[in-house]
Design goal:
Elements (H helix, E strand, L loop, with lengths): L2 H13 L21 H7 L4 H8 L8 H10 L4 H10 L16 H8 L6 E5 L4 E4 L1 H7 L12 H7 L1 H4 L8 H19 L4 H12 L1 H7 L11 E6 L3 E11 L5 E7 L5 H12 L5
Antiparallel strand pairs: 1-2, 1-5, 3-4, 4-5
Helix pairs in contact: 2-3, 2-4, 4-5, 7-13, 8-10, 8-11, 10-11, 11-12
Protein name: Helix-turn-helix protein
InterPro entries: Cro/C1-type_HTH, Lambda_DNA-bd_dom_sf, MLTR_LBD
GO molecular function: DNA binding
Length: 278
């Protein structure tokens, strides 16, 4: 690990960004060039002390997960992301496979969506980044680890928890859609990938999954209209729009409600109260 190179790189990348580049308000009397350290730490979901130690050449070797968070926070290009991994003593991630890296362009779109739930997902239905409105509606996904990061995995492995967000009559359709999506990802990534691990694990523990997997339905789609169940506000009808990256490995999901509708009022209430219990 090259601590000098890492510190210099983080400093220059931080200075090159303005608050508006990442969806933050500059505020009054701002003297810092670029982003503050605490702002980068906030965007990367880490402590300010940890990030500061990296810039001061005092930090431990960051994990691959921390580097992925830093790459998103600093809006790094693929080449810059690969450089960050290498100076920290890690191999650069395979660009052709499933990755936590989110391209700066799609992050810029997400940064400008404050009033409506929006999030970026991988082909394995892993939430890579989400805005505050999405956290209020769907819960905070940042603490999920391992196979539990995949919404496909959670749907079948923890149905009593995951399926509460959808009306019971929608469960069969959702199950089919998720398995078809995993089959599509499996075809691209191969059996020796996270897609293969998820399929093998679910086939062993869920009869429902095993039956649907044997059908070999292949499709990656998002329902344009759906009903979500919030634990405090109840049913919320939303329209779902998906913006895919060029290689279709990730999608920005935006949830909206018809203006003047009850659902729109509920989303507005969620925007105000955030994740507090009503």
């Amino acid at each position: 690990m090259d601590r000098d190179a890492l510190a210099g790189f983080l400093l220059r990348r931080r200075e090159a960004l303005s608050p508006s580049d990442v969806g933050l308000s500059a505020g009054a009397r701002r003297r810092t060039v670029g982003l503050r350290r605490e702002e980068v730490a906030q965007l990367a979901a880490m402590s300010t002390d940890y990030y500061t130690r990296l810039e001061q050449r005092r930090g431990p070797q960051p994990s691959a997960q921390i580097l992925a968070s830093l790459a998103r926070a600093l809006r790094l290009t693929p080449d810059e992301r690969d450089y960050l991994y290498r100076v920290c003593g890690h191999s650069a991630p395979d660009r052709a496979g499933a990755t936590d890296y989110v391209r700066p362009g799609i992050l810029r779109v997400l940064d400008r969506l404050h009033d409506t739930p929006a999030f970026v997902v991988s082909v394995l239905d892993e939430v890579l980044v989400q805005n505050d409105a999405a956290r209020a509606l769907l819960g905070d996904a940042s603490g999920l680890t391992g196979l539990d990061r995949s919404g496909i995995y959670r749907w079948f492995a923890h149905p009593e928890q995951e399926r509460r967000r959808y009306p019971e009559e929608d469960h069969p359709r959702q199950s089919r859609a998720l398995v078809a999506s995993l089959r599509a990802a499996h075809g691209v990534l191969g059996a020796r990938s996270r897609a293969g691990d998820i399929a093998a694990e679910l086939a062993a523990r869920s009869a429902e999954f095993a039956e649907l997997w044997s059908v070999h339905e292949v499709a990656r789609r998002f329902e344009q209209h759906k009903v979500l169940i919030h634990p405090e506000l109840g049913a919320i009808e939303v329209d779902c729009q998906a913006l895919f990256t060029e290689d279709e490995s990730q999608a920005l999901i935006v949830l909206t409600a018809a203006p003047g509708s009850e659902a729109a009022s509920k989303l507005e209430l969620l925007r105000v109260i955030g994740t507090q219990v009503v």
